[in-house]
Design goal:
Layout lengths: L2 E5 L4 H12 L3 E5 L9 H9 L4 E3 L6 H10 L4 E4 L6 H6 L1 H21 L4 E7 L23 H17 L5 E7 L1 E3 L18 H10 L6 E3 L11 E2 L1 E3 H16 L7 E6 L5 E2 H12 L6 E3 L14 H6 L8 H18 L1
Parallel strand pairs: 1-2, 1-4, 2-3, 4-5, 5-6, 6-11, 7-10, 8-13
Antiparallel strand pairs: 9-12
Helix pairs in contact: 1-2, 1-8, 3-5, 5-6, 7-9, 7-11, 9-11
Length: 339
């Protein structure tokens, strides 16, 4: 049984990926400082899978504390999620994002080399493309200027890995995912960050449950179907499964490139207003939102060409937009019941 280190394992995508890895026969160890996540997420994973996962409450920027985790375990692969991810916060606190996101990656790469962990999957983002000139974007689409410090850390992170891979025996996969939303179908696991909530779907569900008193659609004058931003929303469990597929791909015997890149999106661009309409349909609730000005750091429109991931990773989308909204709403209601 291969043992996989998942950094940021108590976070949104990390925790769902742990569930998928466990369901596919992997042993998992987590590192999560719980700076922006909650320790009880490990119990939620157990309630779904019946399997215990050890989480080390370690800051990856502390290389000596992180080294002890490697000394206690022999890992067959690493999936690196741990990073700060709020676009508005990164605009407000750029140095925090550059220090945390890049130092943690460098430390992890150094230790992967030191301890001979040759399979490495990096959590990247569609934000690396910036305001792409041609849509849908492919893995070969040139980067435009990063629209936020968060996006810039992902661009730099990819560059660091690509440079390191030339001198490393390891193999690396960069997964550029688009807009993960939704929750596990059990209703036992979903997005529960201590971040200020700025992402569209958690704001929608939070507004509907009464957690927030307002929801603003930022920008109504973009060159899109209805004037609002276009995103490629994808269910978090579909994203999670792609990470399992990536590890299985790296573990297979066939020859691999030092670094391979895959887009993870549905290929369908959805406007913010269309996302609201989907939520209103599946929930039966009317959302009282307001229309506001554009927000700094936002890309106008982005969606994926996912042919490469479908072909090479044998990865397939299983859930549509309504399912994303339904599972997100079920999770939001479950959280409200616990309070």
């Amino acid at each position: 049984m291969a043992k996989i280190l998942v950094t940021g394992g108590c976070g949104y995508i990390g925790s769902h990926t742990i569930v998928d890895l466990l369901d596919n026969g992997f042993e998992v160890v987590s590192i999560d400082s719980n700076m922006r996540s909650k320790a009880e997420t490990i119990e939620r994973i157990f309630s779904i899978t019946g399997k215990r996962v050890k989480n080390y409450s370690v800051d990856l920027c502390d290389i000596e504390a992180t080294r002890k985790v490697f000394q206690e375990n022999k890992f067959d692969g690493i999936i690196h999620f741990a990073a700060l991810k709020s676009v508005p916060e990164s605009v407000d606190k750029p140095l925090l994002y550059y220090k945390n996101n890049l130092e943690s990656l460098i430390n992890l790469l150094e230790l992967s080399g030191e301890f001979g962990v040759n399979n490495f999957v990096f959590s990247s983002s569609c934000s690396v493309y910036g305001n792409a000139k041609d849509l849908p974007v492919t893995e070969e689409t040139a980067f435009e200027k990063a629209e936020s410090p968060y996006a810039h850390t992902k661009q730099i992170g990819e560059e660091i890995i690509t440079a390191y891979a030339k001198k490393s025996t390891g193999k690396f996969i960069l997964l550029r995912y688009f807009n993960p939303v939704g929750a596990h179908e059990s209703g036992k696991l979903g997005e529960d960050s201590t971040d200020v909530v700025t992402a569209v779907v958690p704001r929608i569900t939070g507004m509907a449950i009464g957690k927030f008193t307002s929801f603003t659609v930022f920008g109504t004058d973009y060159d899109t179907r209805d004037g609002s931003c276009i995103r490629d929303y994808i269910h978090v469990m579909d994203i999670a499964n792609a990470h399992t597929k990536a590890i299985q791909y790296l573990n297979s015997a066939s020859e691999k490139q030092p670094v391979e890149v895959f887009n993870l999106g549905t290929g369908n661009g959805v406007t913010v207003l269309e996302a609201i309409q989907s939520f209103e349909k599946v929930s039966g609730k009317k959302l009282n939102y307001t229309l506001g000005p554009r927000r700094a750091g936002d890309v106008v429109s982005i969606y994926a060409n996912n042919n490469k991931a479908v072909t090479k990773l044998n990865w397939h989308i299983k859930r549509d937009l309504d399912t994303m909204m339904h599972t997100a709403w079920v999770w939001e209601q479950k959280m409200a019941e616990k309070k």
